[in-house]
Amino acid sequence: MLELRELYKTFNPGTITEKHALNGLSLKLETGDFVTVIGGNGAGKSTMLNAIAGVWPVDSGAILIDGKDVSGLPEHKRASFLGRVFQDPMTGTAADMEIIENLALAARRGQRRTLRWGVKKAEQEEYRELLKILDLGLEERLHAKVGLLSGGQRQALTLLMATLRKPEVLLLDEHTAALDPKTAAKVLDATDRIVTRDNLTTIMITHNMKDAIAHGNRLIMMNEGRIILDIRGEEKTKLTVEDLLHQFEKVSGQAFASDSAILS
Amino acid sequence: MIAYFTSLNPLALLRACPGGIAQGLVWGIMALGVYLTFRMLDFADLSVDGSMATGGAVCIMLIMNGWNPEAALLVSFLAGLLAGIITGLLHTLLGIPAILAGILTQISLYSINLNILGGKSNQAINVNSVSLRITSNASLLPRTILLLAIVCLVIIGILYWYLGTEHGSALRATGNNPNMSRAQGISTKMMTVIALALSNGLVALSGGILSQYQGFADVNMGRGAIVIGLAAVIIGEVLGEAILGKHLNFFLRLAFVVVGGIIYYLVYVFVLWLKFPANDMKLLTAIVVAIFLAVPYLQGRSKSSFSKVAKRNAKNAKEGK
Ligand SMILES: Nc1ncnc2c1ncn2[C@@H]1O[C@H](COP(=O)(O)OP(=O)(O)OP(=O)(O)O)[C@@H](O)[C@H]1O
Ligand SMILES: [Mg+2]
């Protein structure tokens, strides 16, 4: 379904800030896999998602979606396979456009944009129904500018936009990190429901180990641009936060770099 | 002082107004082009100074060569499209910063325009031998104004329609949030080029119409055009929001850009009537634009500024609170 083969990416090569962000990263997901990703700051988690999304080309390696090598496609062309939600709630939506306009843009992801009217009449009802799954009352505010929404509402809307056209892979980069605990739980809940409903292949980065254990069917841990731990199925359900911290120290030979992961 | 005031002739002002309105309408078309890049893409495109003159030069030369004036305007528009595409490619393909890309196109257009004008800095047509629908001929001014108003309305209608389509929505999204746009499969580079092309097309069309109106094209006719365009956009916005407030929908917003152009030229006529030296008009325009651009920023600052907090806290400390 999604396969990453030996990905390498070095930022600022040949300078003092040279950074080997991806170091021969390989990963293979089956259809419907929901993988949570953990790892310290700078482990290369976001870099992995950016490589998949095509924000820049990788130095070497191949990215296959549905068996097709997409490594040579620019970001906007890969978008037809991908749904993305970002850490910053401002990134995923157009603030000066209405909720319904944002949704209509997302509904045409991967299609040719024609000179037909941007939002069809029939879409209104469709979106109203879809917004209900978020349970945030947005279905009553279809014509509100997105800039008026809270971070949590924008993030939930972005999630809906990312999944409006079923993506081959859904990429979530700490998409609840900027939200308060209650809103974060709500967005996570909506994520679970949508992923299950559409049987979406999903990669979710989080710093919250409990979330990483509670969600999805597979958990990977990254360090220095590689996957150092890959736990799935039965084994994953039995995991505890202590296990993970212990495993991390064992495999990487250092203490886990993120305090927030331990505290939360 | 008294001599100055008695020398001002109210009738002269009245007589000058129709001309101001006509010019305002012509520049309103130009301002719609500026609106497309400045407001939709947040791209202050300096190539318009060049493409305005390109539009004029192309139009006048074609008419001199026996072309039908309306067909000549179409070619002006196409020439502008091309100029916009160049700026767009300089920016998106070659990574040249927006402002600089515009300046490069503008400068190269200066040479190109001189070439179009046959090596002269200006060329005039004999307005009596060509039948022009748009002319500054005083007796025909009401008809010219009506015609220009219709042209403006049609352009506003087309822009309103286009920006509401799937394609136009993608263009708006590109200006609003390029990251989001790419994630939704929009080629932001392509959209930037298209917006710049359309914008410069409109500007060149306006240049062509202006050249017909005044009966000549001058290689310098676009100098400072961006500032006048911005002035029209900003005056229109301020006015539209003041008059209509929440009822200012997108169609009216575009219409007010043209109104901004008209107001600008009426003020221009008025200031000239006050015997303000014409040479200083560009300075005045720049000052007005700077003020209008600064006002929203300063208003924001007056609501929250560091020095205010510091003063208030110092005062409170003194009073022992
Ligand atoms: N565009 C870029 N240019 C230069 N360096 C970059 C870029 N993107 C990432 N890096 C570097 O690559 C390394 C990996 O960054 P990445 O953002 O993938 O980490 P992460 O695992 O997502 O960490 P965090 O938990 O802090 O989000 C970091 O050292 C970062 O500074
Ligand atoms: Mg990250």
List keywords for this structure.
heterodimer; A: 264 residues; alpha/beta; 4-stranded antiparallel β-sheet; 10 helices; B: 321 residues; ABC transporter involved in vitamin B12 uptake, BtuC; two-stranded antiparallel ribbon; 2 strands; 77% helix; 2% strand; binds adenosine-5'-triphosphate; binds magnesium ion
Q: List the ions, cofactors and other small molecules found in this model.
A: adenosine-5'-triphosphate, magnesium ion
Task: State which percent range the strand residues of chain B make up.
Answer: under 5%
Please give the number of β-strands of chain B.
2
Distance between the termini of chain A: 32 Å
List the helices and strands and how they pair.
The complex is a heterodimer of chains A (264) and B (321).
Chain A: E1 2-11, E2 19-29, E3 34-38, H1 45-53, E4 60-65, E5 68-69, H2 75-78, E6 82-85, H3 99-107, H4 121-132, H5 151-164, E7 169-173, H6 181-198, E8 201-205, H7 209-214, E9 218-223, E10 226-232, H8 233-237, H9 241-252, H10 259-263
Parallel strand pairs in A: 3-8, 3-9, 6-7, 7-8
Antiparallel strand pairs in A: 1-2, 1-4, 4-5, 9-10
Helix pairs in contact in A: 3-5, 5-6
Chain B: H1 2-7, H2 10-41, H3 48-64, H4 69-92, H5 98-116, E1 122-124, H6 141-164, H7 166-176, H8 178-183, H9 188-214, E2 216-218, H10 225-244, H11 250-273, H12 281-303, H13 306-318
Helix pairs in contact in B: 2-6, 2-9, 2-10, 2-11, 3-4, 3-5, 3-9, 4-5, 4-9, 6-7, 6-11, 7-9, 10-11, 10-12
The site of magnesium ion has 3 residues of chain A, from helix 1.
Short description:
Chain A has 264 residues and is of the alpha/beta class. Chain A is built from ten helices and ten strands.
Please describe what this structure looks like.
The complex is a heterodimer of chains A (264) and B (321). With 264 residues, chain A is α/β, with parallel strands linked by helices. Chain A is built from ten helices and ten strands. Chain A has helices at residues 45-53, 75-78, 99-107, 121-132, 151-164, 181-198, 209-214, 233-237, 241-252, 259-263; strands spanning 2-11, 19-29, 34-38, 60-65, 68-69, 82-85, 169-173, 201-205, 218-223, 226-232. A six-stranded mixed β-sheet of chain A has the order 6-7-8-3-9-10, sandwiched between helices. A four-stranded antiparallel β-sheet of chain A has the order 2-1-4-5, covered by helices on one side. In chain A, a hairpin with a 7-residue loop joins strand 1 (2-11) and strand 2. In chain A, helix 3 runs parallel beside helix 5 (151-164) and helix 5 (151-164) packs parallel to helix 6 (181-198). Chain B has 321 residues and is an all-alpha fold. Chain B has a single domain, classed as Orthogonal Bundle (ABC transporter involved in vitamin B12 uptake, BtuC). Chain B has a two-stranded antiparallel sheet with strand order 1-2. In chain B, helix 2 (10-41) runs antiparallel to helix 11, helix 3 runs parallel beside helix 5 and helix 7 crosses helix 9. Chain B starts with a helix and ends with a helix. The interface between A and B is medium-sized, with 35 and 22 residues. Magnesium ion (MG) binds next to helix 1 of chain A.
